[in-house]
Description:
- The chain is mainly β.
- The chain has one helix at about 1-15, and strands at about 65-70, 75, 80-85, 95-100, 105-110, 120-125, 135-145, 150-160, 180-185, 190, 195-200, 210-215, 220-225, 225-230, 230-240, 250-255, 265-270, 280-290.
- Helix content is about 5%, strand content about 40%.
- The strands form five sheets. Strands 2-8-7-4-5 form a five-stranded mixed sheet, with no helix packed on it.
Amino acid sequence: MIARRIVLICALAALPGLALTACNLPRNGQPAPDVSVPPILVITDTPAAAPPTPVSHTEVDLEFIQITAPGPGSRVTSPLVVTGFSLPTYEQTLVVKLTDMNGDTLALQPVTLQAELGEAGPFETTLLFDIAEEQPGRITVYYASPRDGGLVHLASAHVTLLPEGPVVIEAAASEDETIQIDYPDPLAVFPGGIVPFSGSSEYFFEASLVVVLCGEGGSGPPDEICGTQDNLLALLPIMIDSPDIGLPGTFGGEMQVTVTRETAARLVVYATSPMDGGLVHLTSVEIILRP
């Protein structure tokens, strides 16, 4: 796992116009060279007939962003202290968000990792919120790409929000990556418009995931996943091959996309909540697309 992420960063540092402080630790979603010719947009909504052969790993990746407290199922009041641990990010910055049962934002707070630049480390922040009645809520911690503003990684914990009363803090979730992309590897090159992918995932509602390809940046209306709508190159809903409801499983398929030049892209896999449609987990890998 560590060797894999080191290869990613050293390769990223070799890209023209990219300045990194360190090349020996993971730094997902780093800036890429500005370009003037946008890729051609292709949206696909049907899975490919022949998914790629899954890549086997000896161990599961560690979660990029780990929320250590409060854990899922906790009962919390304001002020709410959120703690966690993360791999290094651009300028060591994350964003912590609290949403209510409708998905509306109750609190939003940037937070900085308590570690030297380029090193993994803990984070902590306090959120203030005001509600009239007990209701389900979600704590979300995410890392946005400095290149396009889209999401590189996102983790969450579902909790119960209380206007007052006793607080109950449950244990954190597993440290294993919730959605793991086994293939492609970081900075893999894909010519000809076909991008195969495979991985494994915890069970989500109706065993559903979504795969998206984001490009190098755009200037259109905002898009939560890719930053702007014109930066979304392809989208594909997929299913987790789970042995039964509630059990983890594997996934795989192919994306179809057309580009007119070499393009630094991000393959994103995410899951949404049946409660409000908001994101509950997202992971990604940087790749290179060629005509």
